[in-house]
Amino acid sequence: MTTRISTTARTLMADALVDLLDGGSGPGVLEIRTGAQPASVGTTATGTLLATLTLSDPAFGSAVNGVATASAITSDFSADATGTAGWFRALDSNGAAVIDGSVSASGGGGDLILNDTAVVAGGTIAVSSWTFTQSAG
Questions:
Q1: Taking CA atoms, which of 12, 57, 76, 131 is between 20 and 30 Å from 19?
Q2: Is the pTM of this model over 0.70?
């Protein structure tokens, strides 16, 4: 038998998760990295750090029907390294990891959509969109 949760519960769960990114006294950050996403958020980050982007504070607006949409994210106008973006890690302002996920360019199906996954050191990397969806079951 499948466990299912109500839309109200999904919405509250989505809000609770993304609100963790607002921990600490300032905005959280997104790290964009090469390679494969680690097994869990608690695992040490792998791959080359390509860019660090600053989240808004608060990072997300209120969820609707279990879906939270990120507020504005400040682009990194001087990428740290050259490589292909493979995954992201979102951290609160205290450096605590909260969410990991896949990245892609528009139409690629990633959890986080970038302007381009081909990053060049010193270039600009920007987020086109980011939503978090709490599943219903």
A1: 76
A2: yes
